[in-house]
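<goal> How does this chain fold?
<body> The protein record starts here
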Amino acid sequence: MHGPNPDIKHPMPLHPRVGFLKPLVDAENIEIGDFTYYDDPAGPEHFVEKCILHHYPFIGDRLVIGRYCAIAEGAKFVMNGANHAMSGFSTYPFNIFGSGWEEGFDPATWSQELRGDTVVGNDVWIGMEALVMPGVTVGHGAIVAARAVVSRDVPPYAIVAGNPAKVVKTRFDPDTVERLLAVAWWDWPVDKVTRNLDAIRGADISRLEQAA
């Protein structure tokens, strides 16, 4: 046994609501790693239109999601296209309606609000209806609680909850986190992952480090 094929769109035949996102998403500004899945009764094939908001290729920002991530129903990623210029008295986007309102608009007042790529690490669990804001990095092994609003970076192996999301606890002590990041099991070949599932699912870092 070598594990499921990461290129299968629906890896659980009796549960079509679950889908591997890499073969389902084809967009120049989205990168998703192997085995990351989305679970939605309306179908995972609607992930982009339902979950990724205000993401326009001309802006240049990317959504990057690592391998082995679990994304629950209704989770959303707000991208930089949602931002408004905030340097003046009004945030209203007069220019987008044209008819003379575009005259005198300085694009720099809007572009200075761009916050870069949104990056989700490997082995991240994002709970139901969580909201990830533009330019945020969610570290490897983190857990984002249901309905959390993530407006700042999340450290590796942290659990965040609330609005704005704050660290509730860390999953492991700092030494173990450092060792987990060094092992980076998510970068292993699939056959090695398959051979060492007990170590990956367990909590003995020495055993994981010794995996062959």
Remarks:
- The radius of gyration is 19 Å.
- The first strand starts at residue 18 and ends at 20.
